[in-house]
Amino acid sequence: MVNMLGIINKDPFTTEKEILKRKREDIKLKTEVYALSQSISMSAHKARRVLDQIRGRSYQETLMILELMPYRACYPIFKLIYSAAANAKHNMGLNEEYLVIIKAAVNEGTTVKKLKPRARGRSYPIKRPTCHITIVLKDTALYEQYVVENSIRCLKKPGWIYKKKSTDITCHNMYSSGEVWDKK
Question: Which of 39, 93, 126, 151 could crosslink 114 through cysteines, CB 3.0-4.6 Å?
Fold first, then answer.
């Protein structure tokens, strides 16, 4: 069965809304790229201190911040973000200029336990914590294109007069000013 959108539908009971919802989810999945690094030998608390600074920022701004921060956790995170951007460029053909970090998470990994020999045959435990870091990048180029198309569609509606006043309603794009919106 072929519907109005030209999509072959195997299930005759699915509606047009469900098909459009699936298409939007596919576009969302195609614009998100992630990289995961496991068993990095540092505590999750120290890595989280760095990730809180870069969450929500653009790719190139993040690289500059990580190069200048004095923490030891910056280098593995730098490599991970660089790897995620390489995945986006190679696997999906996305442009690095439009990538934004939407999710940066740290989970505690296994703790490596060793024994340090001490005097009189005793031993003291040494615990080396590890962590798993996940970085998710999103391409904002499609988002910007979507906002521009919708704002033009809003302006073309009959009866709408576009005037530049403070009371007019305009579609706002958080990436149009060149700065990424920060949650803090």
Answer: 126
Domain 32-155 classification at class level: alpha beta
Contacts of 143 (CB under 8 A, 6+ apart): 31, 175
Q: Against a cut of 0.85, is the pTM above it?
A: no
pLDDT tens by residue, 49-68: 999 999 999 999 999 999 99
Angle of CA points 76, 141, 103, to nearest 5°? 35
What is the per-residue pLDDT across 76-113, written as a single tens digit (0 to 9) for each?
999 999 999 999 999 888 889 989 999 999 999 999 99
Domain ranges of the chain: 32-155
- Residue 139 CB neighbours (<10 A): 21
Tokens describing residue 141? 């180029």
The b-or-e profile of 29-58 (16+ CB within 10 A means b, else e) is: eebebbbebeebebbbeebbebbebbbbbb
